[in-house]
Design brief:
Elements lengths: L6 E2 L4 E2 L5 H22 L4 H7 L4 H25 L4 H16 L2
Helix pairs in contact: 3-4
């Protein structure tokens, strides 16, 4: 064993030390991912976005249909990622779309 490296007690192998730059890069990546996830959680609903854009009539209807379609696709993908099936998938997707659209 190298004199400056601690041994891995469980496996009886040497443990490699990570350079400080690599550790900091990993921490920054984790922080960036957390910010992206948190930023997505605070997004407005379709209804709130429509009101903020002051849409009315056909423009509002078109926007809401597209937004609902996008929300449905995202929610179905999330349900698939969570490996939901049957009633659990339907319930999750319905609530997810309702929350996303603000209906």
């Amino acid at each position: 064993m190298a004199p400056n490296r601690p041994a891995n007690i469980c496996a009886g192998e040497e443990k490699e030390e990570q350079p400080l730059e690599e550790t900091m890069a990993r921490l920054l990546m984790a922080l960036a991912a957390t910010c992206l996830i948190a930023g997505g959680a605070t997004a407005d609903t379709c209804k709130a976005e429509s009101e903020a854009k002051k849409l009315h009539g056909a423009a509002e209807t078109s926007f809401m249909k597209k937004c609902e379609k996008d929300a449905t696709a995202k929610c179905e993908a999330d349900a698939k990622e969570k490996k939901l099936h049957g009633a659990a998938e339907t319930s999750f997707t319905k609530k997810c779309v309702k929350d996303a659209t603000g209906a």
